[in-house]
């Protein structure tokens, strides 16, 4: 019986499950993962699971594991597998770091990564912070309540005791945790169980500064800027020490092969290796997992001062002090990967293909497997060859060739090579926009890319000539992000994206109103949050910007920045996607992603002199939350 594949063939022409998924993004680590075949490179993930089990049984305290393998071999796929396995198993928590923007402040960045990771959901379907908070209360009070029960009960306690119950719980916990020298860490973790305060607590635990009103209301002292980097690692140690009493922390450092260098000449991987060595010596228990290229291990780790001591900790699971190497794929592996991806694709689209590998030919896939490819190269081949069988003719010189004779009989819409990658990145952005909109540097890069694609265009009466760095850099001190130059340099707009609060917003506005020093004709603040009335200096400078200097405050809306972020991530990964800068800029122009973007047009338009509407609330809710109906009645006996 001949299977009618016309519906499936039309689906294949319009959707390509492989395109845009060649590189693992952090969103796949935290959210929906790629289709996984657990047997492939199982030795690497099993090493982590075995280490966790040995720690759980008391056979080991701390284990260091390093995966050093070729580009595209599947290192991040292994991390994703580990994360999603831990997500369904109780007893561990997952910490992940893959961005290293400022190596000279790596301890502060690590603290922010720890806080961001613990904000993600764990095995109990609540934030990992909330799992730890519940465990702390249960031990202190000899209770056995779930995080969900505490989250439901908190409004009742606020109503009955105000904030006093948090003070008492903090004191009780400190009695059983004498190693904690900073009691405010415990208090902040307890605040995460309050829905109204969880985001502020996480912000403070990240080492960042709350507004004074927020800090006072929650009883949390703001960190002093001059001590922030010095205190960051001590804070991390105390957080991980607390968490390790209840969960085994698995701390992953991914993407260590970038070319950033510190002021003292150390690379990213060398800085992280030194950080892990220090943490290894003081950590109560846990697993460290690092991924890097083989040449990075050989050329950078082995050249470190005290390299022997570092390697002893980075590969402490291996007697011979060698990192784990991932295997190249064989024909059976290729078949397994492709079958798994296609199975999920057809199930999601409620289609039954003629066979499990359709539209691919098993013999051609096995031929590809005999070349010992990497995971990435297989996915790339599948993305390039994902077309219906009737559109392909056999070619003895290639694994597949588009049948131009067949195509000539149909009308096809040419798909831009950037489009599938853009669509994939846009899906990832949709998932993680709440955290992305807080990443100032990423937002700035997205705007920079958008404006650079518009050089030579005239928008809102401004012909864009160039996008420039802000000079003098010493006076700017990294605050203002870039300048838009237009109309024969008669227009010079200084742009600053500021999502942080308190002292930062005041300092940033101080630069935006200093037109003389920075040679501006207009200052433009980009921000999604209100500026608190308690931030007196910032409010004064904002008034000067809007009313006296003819500057502007443009509201940062998530729907406006999403497409710019998506195309930015394509730009970041253009080498892995085998795309050129020219193709990306062509796509931006073709889809009018920049020229019709409301955020970009608003930055260039004549200033209104008004604060934007639809801003998120920057103030802490001071009012007492109402009790949740039918909440469990847990009596604190205060």
Provide a descriptive summary of the structure in words.
- This protein has 638 residues and is of the alpha/beta class.
- Helices cover 48% and strands 10% of the residues.
- The protein is built from 28 helices and 12 strands.
- Strands 7-8-9-10-11-12 form a 6-stranded mixed sheet, with helices on both faces. It has a 4-stranded parallel sheet with strand order 1-4-3-2, sandwiched between helices.
- The N and C termini lie far apart (76 Å).
What is the topological layout?
Blueprint lengths: L5 H9 L11 H5 L11 H15 L5 E8 L5 H13 L4 E6 L8 H14 L8 H14 L5 H15 L2 H13 L6 H9 L6 H8 L6 H7 L9 H17 L3 E6 L14 H15 L3 E8 H8 L5 H8 L16 H18 L13 H8 L5 H10 L7 E2 L7 E2 L1 H4 L11 H18 L3 H13 L5 E2 L2 E7 L4 H4 L5 E5 L4 E7 L5 H10 L2 H4 L3 E6 L8 H13 L3 E4 L2 H15 L8 H10 L7 H7 L34
Parallel strand pairs: 1-4, 2-3, 3-4, 10-11, 11-12
Antiparallel strand pairs: 5-6, 7-8, 8-9, 9-10
Helix pairs in contact: 3-4, 5-12, 6-8, 6-9, 8-9, 9-10, 13-15, 16-17, 20-26, 21-26, 23-25
Oligomer, anyone? single chain
Quantity of strands, as a count? 12
In DSSP terms (H or I, runs of 4 or more residues), the helix count works out at 28
Distance between the termini: 76 Å
In short:
This protein has 28 helices and 12 strands. The protein is of the alpha/beta class and 638 residues long.
Q: What are its keywords?
A:
6-stranded mixed sheet, alpha/beta, 4-stranded parallel sheet, 638 residues, 48% helix, globular
